[in-house]
Design goal:
With 306 residues, the protein is an alpha+beta fold. Helix content is 53%, strand content 17%. The strands form two sheets. Strands 4-3-2-1-5 form a five-stranded antiparallel β-sheet.
Length: 306
């Protein structure tokens, strides 16, 4: 019932205007002074009232439908999909309602109606010119509709665009807002996501694998590192207990590169887990194997001739 309260005021205003229109038509002799000056004012207000009611109604229907989906849940993939589609579809419907309302208001004026007929008769060349000039704007609107149905991303998806990592915060017909990890906002046209590659870390699921690189001396004991990694992961709630790997991925002239792979339920948690594992592994090396930290060796050979 709370949702429908938003519709009460525009509905009552429109109803009063319709009744006034009927009454004034019947009592036109009484109101000739007013309506000779503004003959279409009541019609215009009625159109605006109906437009207002339809705009409020679309918002109410969207909120009622979205109550079935909880986007705050951890596994909210379907909810984010529905939220994204409905938000864009509501904007499309509202845009059409506003255009139709403006059109009905203009058509209610006889001079403008005659001008419109003349324009339609000679709209060939003008239509081509307008089409070329509005090509980019129309392309952006079409891209917004494509994103609503194809859904290369959804609301709250973790993405990497323009070298920045963040979450999809707003999806509009002409632009998309990405909330960067440091609370900045990156605003991109919808066509960007159809023309350029970008990373979507939560396309099919939120869980993700993070990597940690450790550089040590050749004397490091790898079995001890693996045992310490097991201990670290078993004592943190950040790990989802799915992926746990420590591998030597490179051996350079001075250091050995070890890569640790760990999994987490989502990208923010994976970031915290990577930081935690890196810190604990370095502390372990400092405390137990300080000689295994990266070092530079210098060999001095004795000069036998002396």
């Amino acid at each position: 019932m709370k949702n429908y309260r938003r519709l009460i005021i525009p509905f009552l205003v429109t109803l009063v205007l319709v009744l006034a229109k009927i009454y004034f038509r019947e009592e036109s002799a009484t109101w000739t002074g007013l309506f000779s000056v503004l003959p279409h004012i009541n019609t215009i207000l009625i159109i605006l009232g109906f437009t207002w009611c339809l705009l409020v109604l679309t918002g109410i229907l969207k909120r009622i439908f979205l109550k079935q989906f909880d986007i705050s849940q951890e596994n909210n993939l379907r909810a984010r999909k529905v939220y994204t589609q409905l938000n864009i579809l509501q904007k499309i419907v509202n845009f059409i309602i506003i255009i139709l309302g403006i059109g009905l208001i203009l058509v209610s004026f006889e001079p403008i109606r005659k001008i419109g007929v003349g324009l339609f008769a000679s709209a060939g060349v003008a239509g081509i010119i307008i089409g070329f000039s509005a090509q980019k704007a129309i392309g952006t609107l079409v891209a917004g509709i494509q994103i609503a149905f194809a859904q290369p991303f959804r609301l709250d998806d973790a993405v990497v665009v323009e070298g920045e990592w963040g979450w999809i915060e707003e999806v509009n017909l002409t632009y998309v807002v990405v909330r960067i990890w440091d609370q900045r906002r990156l605003v991109l046209p919808t066509t960007y996501f159809l023309e350029k590659p970008f990373q979507n870390w939560t396309r099919t699921s939120a869980d993700i694998i993070g990597s940690v690189f450790i550089y040590t001396d050749y004397s490091v004991p790898f079995d001890a590192l693996r045992e310490e990694l097991d201990r670290i992961l078993e004592n943190t709630p950040l790990w989802d207990k799915k992926v746990k790997v420590l591998q030597v991925t490179d051996a350079k002239e001075r250091t050995v590169e070890s890569r640790i792979l760990v999994s987490a339920k989502n990208s923010p948690t994976a970031w915290d887990l990577r930081v935690h594992v890196r810190e604990k592994m370095i502390e372990f090396l400092q405390k137990n194997y300080p000689a295994a930290l990266p070092r530079t060796r210098v060999v001095l050979e004795e000069n036998k001739s002396s």
